[in-house]
Amino acid sequence: MIITVPDTTATGIHMALVEARHNIGVASSMVFTMIVIADARNYERALEACHDAGREHPSRIILVTNGDHDGNRLDAEIRLGEEVPGEIISLHFHGELNDHRASVVLALLLPDSPVVAWWPGSAPDKPGEDQLGKLAIRRITDAMGSSRPRAAIERRARNYSPGDTDLTWTRLTPWRALLAAALDSYPATVTGVSVESAPNNAASMLLAAWLEDRLKVPVDRREGDKGIGITNVILTTTKGDIVIAREDGKMATFSAPGLPRRQVALRRRDIDALITEELRRLDVDDIFASAMRTLVGRCERDAGR
Question: By C-alpha distance, which of 244, 188, 184, 185 is closest to 217?
Answer without folding.
Answer: 188
